[in-house]
Specification:
The complex is a heterodimer of chains A (115) and B (114). By secondary structure, chain A is mainly β. Helix content of chain A is 0%, strand content 55%. Chain B has 114 residues and is mostly beta strands. Chain B has no helices and 11 strands. Classes of the chains: A mainly beta (115), B mainly beta (114). Chains A and B meet through strand 5, strand 6, strand 10 and strand 11 of A and strand 5, strand 9 and strand 10 of B.
């Protein structure tokens, strides 16, 4: 069985602070994919990043960065110098296997960035 | 290029009525997914299709739910009869090739069953 845990239900920070959203996953497969999606208050789900299990290189995209560590089964997401527009629910997701029959979302972390 | 299109965006209906949700995936995408989002259960995968064929419907809650994909550019999710506990946001998503490819989501249909 696969599982995605996002232990932080809600986080509040003040604008310009850095914030890290945690994601821990469980899978028995050696081939899997990890994702982060953002759901702003408007409700749509916006794709942020996709990472396969063979690529542990950290990724940086502007103020966003991702730290993938297979040793701890974690795929954490950091927002640097947070802004009010970053306020949203962030979901981590896992798809396993060569054909990815299962696609499981974590419960999400609600991030509030206060001005 | 247009993203995933869903209609209607909002639906209010009475218990017992039939509800049909519609989805047009991104052109060229082979996979289509239907999800339901509620506060209690989060995002749940209901069913997905590959090349218009249903592959896994194990997430469909009960026989009142059915989904079809008559062609590559159109899918429906039907609830008959609807119940208040079906109130949720229903998302459609599509992806290219395999399921581990990035899924692109539609704006969702917010369903309220009174």
């Amino acid at each position: 069985a696969q599982k995605v845990t996002q232990a932080q239900t809600e986080i509040s920070v003040v604008e310009k602070e850095d914030v890290t959203l945690d994601c821990v996953y469980e899978t028995r497969d050696t081939t899997y994919y990890l994702f982060w999606y953002k759901q702003p208050p408007s409700g749509e789900l916006v794709f942020l990043i996709r990472r396969n299990s063979f690529d542990e290189q950290n990724e940086i995209s502007g103020r966003y960065s991702w730290n993938f560590q297979k040793s701890t089964s974690s795929f954490n997401f950091t927002i640097t110098a947070s802004q009010v527009v970053d306020s949203a629910v962030y979901f981590c997701a896992l798809s396993e296997g060569n054909y990815g029959q299962n696609f499981v979302f974590g419960p999400g972390t609600r991030l509030s960035v206060l001005p | 290029d247009a993203g995933v299109i869903q209609s209607p965006r909002h639906e209010v209906t009475e218990m017992g009525q039939e509800v049909t949700l519609r989805c047009k995936p991104i052109s060229g995408h082979d996979y289509l997914f239907w999800y339901r989002q509620t506060m209690m259960r989060g995002l749940e995968l209901l069913i997905y299709f590959n090349n218009n064929v249903p592959i896994d419907d194990s997430g469909m809650p009960e026989d009142r739910f059915s989904a079809k994909m008559p062609n590559a550019s159109f899918s429906t999710l039907k609830i008959q009869p609807s119940e208040p506990r079906d109130s949720a946001v229903y998302f459609c998503a599509s992806s290219l090739r395999r399921t581990q490819e990035t899924q692109y989501f539609g704006p969702g249909t917010r369903l309220l069953v009174l």
